[in-house]
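[Q] Does anyone have a clean structure-token version of this?
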Amino acid sequence: MSLQSVFFEQLHRHEAGVLVTVQSTRGSVPREAGTWMAVFAHTIVATVGGGHLEFDAIAHARTLLQTGEGDASMRYALGPSLGQCCGGEVVLHFEKVAVSDTASLRQRLSPALLPIALFGGGHVGRAVVQVLANLPMHVTWVDSRDEIFPTALPANVQCEYSDPVHAAVSDLQPGSRVLIMSFSHAEDLDVVAACLARQRAQCDLPYVGLIGSKTKWASFRQRLEARGFSAAELAHITCPIGVPGIPGKEPEVIAVAAAAQLLQSIYSGPVIA
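[A] Here you go.
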């Protein structure tokens, strides 16, 4: 269950609470602007950074619940007086919310989801889905075997049957980051080629990662060069996938390393292998 769902469940149970939002920041701080926490009489949902900052924020929010005072913003310097050494500054906004605010809160708190396309429903694909289910991402999960998908899916995952599998590349949302790990090297090659063709035409796939070894990529590189793709175009493919220095081959280990690399691509731009 997402944090938003937990928040609305608690709001309906308690009927009223205080939404604490990081309004602005300066310098080194634990969480960025827009981060939120919901405070109820005996329950907390989410976090604005922990430590004394959060302890004081919870206490102030519960005071608002008891006294009925209006909304307010408070500035916190993260220094010795607060028992924290970040050195930055956070402005928190305290807002009383009720069940009647549910519709507007759903709209405000819905995160912008990064589009991810995952090709392959095998063991690693399933592990990747479990990791990405907890991140602000919308996953289009593609396979040529319709029966491969599990019945229960995270809310941010949408399954798509495609045969041939590479035909789904043309329908991907612009800005999608792509992970390729099908059951077949032939399918993998066709998906990579389709991504390169789309990148050549539209330049809107900022990251394309292919599972496999350096030997696999050397073989793929020769075949893709024979299809007319240049060295500069092939440099857009990341293979092997995953942040360097993690040697484990277990599906769960690969999934965590691949998810970390996806996050790197968001904050530092396209990854070049």
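[Q] Thanks! Anything notable?
[A] The chain has eight helices and eleven strands.
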